[in-house]
Amino acid sequence: MNKFLSITLLILTALCLSLPAYAQTRTITDMAGRTVVIPEKVERVLCSGPGCLRYLTYLQGQNLIVGVDSIEKRKDKFDARPYAMANPQFKKFPLFGEFRGHDNPELILSLEPQPQVIFKTYKEMGYDPDELQEKTGIPVVCLSYASLAAKRQSVYNSLKLMGDVIGKPERAEKVCNFMEKNIKDLKKRTAGIPESKRKTCYVGGIAKKGPHGFQSTEPAYPPFLFVNAKNVACPPKGHGKPLQHANVAKEQIIAWNPEILFMDISTCQLGEKASAINELKTDPAYQSLDAVITDHVYTVLPYNWYSRNYGSIIADAFYVGKVLYPARFTDIDPKAKADEIYSFMVGKPVFSMMENAFKEKAFDKLVLR
Q: What is the predicted pLDDT for the residue at 290?
């Protein structure tokens, strides 16, 4: 009997030792406050929702994916997602659902191999996380995707949570520190400038779920906030919280008459006759603006493309700072700085790919005549 028990214990021990690491589990709390049981070691994932695969790329974990949503398989002439440009292989992965979080449980269950975890941003889009988890039997971990200016800590916490799940906590810490260091640098460079020396500015043609005209702007435009710029569309302190996005009246822009204009080059998508650039070239009201008359119109990269591209926000801020306060940015080549940022965050210097996707070049003076 003892001999039989000994053999049985040996067999059971051998079986336990041969079990894959993911047979062991641990419990985490996600960014939605949900308690989720996940494998101890996660080696296969899906990223659902705007910005989710971008997070994974920042953490150098893109090799863990087993499928992609529909936006990754598109072949668009226009694109402004550095993480996707640096990873053309995404197009070859099998489809698990439509973009903006509209996942297909049947497609997910047909994937081979199966994901061990589904990361999800914007939990209100598509399937409810609990319902998706129930239909697939795969743990769903919710992440926050937010403004780098207003809710930066939420971004950092999400990156650290993802890093913890996939076993890359050190990389998550490095990414958060990298962004914070650059933002602090921008603010330090532009601190202490007297109000009288700060030129007023406005950014038009801001992308928001597609291209827009010159009236599309951001009162809380992060590149302006990071360099302490005088954004005419931003309400004065004590007059309410600035909107993330707004369409302002043409008459208001004329009344503001900002000294410096910036243009989001995503507006080129509208075509030569409909873009914000064409508006500045042909509309007599806009041609009366001092910035147009004095040739102080400059181009910036779009960053609202399948939600916020944080690297592009920081790159834009360095260019905006260089334009507004050149003496404070003498050591900065904005295009080289952009590639430094992209190289760290997505693994490749993709600035030229970004601007080549649009007719107008980024980080340049806009020629209107």
A: 96
